[in-house]
Design a protein that fits this description.
Elements: H1 3-29, H2 31-38, H3 42-64, H4 70-94, H5 98-124
């Protein structure tokens, strides 16, 4: 992976860290009012929000590394994919409001785009097999 390729991937990881921090703050700090608006249980919002802070720290740390470890980036991709699947699974289990559906689907879409950009960044810049 060239330095330019890593720079682009670093920016995506930094953006992922930023979105994790923002979503974590909204969900964890606003769990109670958000629960009323979304129809999602406050403990679910609090837990989901709280788990995003260490993930944001990891992604932020990764974005600052001189050399990106492909295994760690794939872990980020798989973790993001798991988040999207869990978000979709929550919908039929919780009975959210229309705003709740939009909230869950919007954040899942953002995470899916980030995972896709991270995966593409790795795949496009791996050395070709001989």
């Amino acid at each position: 992976m060239t330095q330019t390729d890593q720079s682009t991937l670093r920016r995506v990881l930094a953006l992922d860290a930023l979105t994790c921090t923002a979503a974590g703050a909204v969900m964890a700090l606003g769990a109670q009012p958000l629960s009323g608006w979304t129809g999602l249980p406050a403990p679910l919002l609090l837990g989901a929000g709280a788990i995003l802070f260490p993930i944001a720290a990891l992604f932020g740390w990764m974005s600052q590394r001189r050399q990106l470890a492909p295994g760690l980036v794939w872990l980020a991709v798989l973790g993001n994919a798991g988040w999207v699947l869990a978000s979709l699974a929550v919908l039929p289990l919780t009975g959210p409001t229309p705003f709740g559906y939009a909230f869950v689907l919007a954040q899942a879409a953002v995470v899916a785009v980030l995972a896709s950009l991270e995966a593409r960044g790795l795949r496009e810049h791996q050395p070709a097999p001989i």
